[in-house]
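Final report, Chapter 2: Outcomes

The project's central promise was a pipeline that accepts a single protein chain and returns its three-dimensional structure in a standardized token representation, suitable for archiving and comparison. That pipeline is now operational. To close this chapter, we reproduce one record exactly as it appears in the project archive, with the input sequence first and the structure output second.
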Amino acid sequence: MAQPAAARQSEGPPDLPLERKAGCGVALVALDRGVTRFPGALGMVKPDQRGMMRFMMQALGAQGQTMLDDAFAEGAARGLTPGQVYAAGVDDMLAAFEGISPRGRDAGERVMKRFFERCQVAPPQGA
């Protein structure tokens, strides 16, 4: 049985603002679901490391779900609808990447580094 968001709040970063929790939560859940639905996305990971990478993505997805639950609970307490919380999270996440050039060999690495720092989660090893 799932714990209520209030009981799990200590599991996620407590100092993230509502918008950041929502944006990070959406992105982390999407990463996990994407790898689940499209396992070929792990094609760049060495075959002997794919199991561990999949496990790490599941853990990040669970953390993202906790962040979303917390953001929606906090939003409801403030009188916001789930749609307003979601939109604020997406806007916050997109604003985080303004100014990062999509060019260059390390563009993806720079984006992922900023994402993991912003969401205060550790990137999967080998990512």
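Archive annotation: The chain has one domain: 16-119.
This record, like all others produced under the grant, will remain available to the consortium after the project formally closes.
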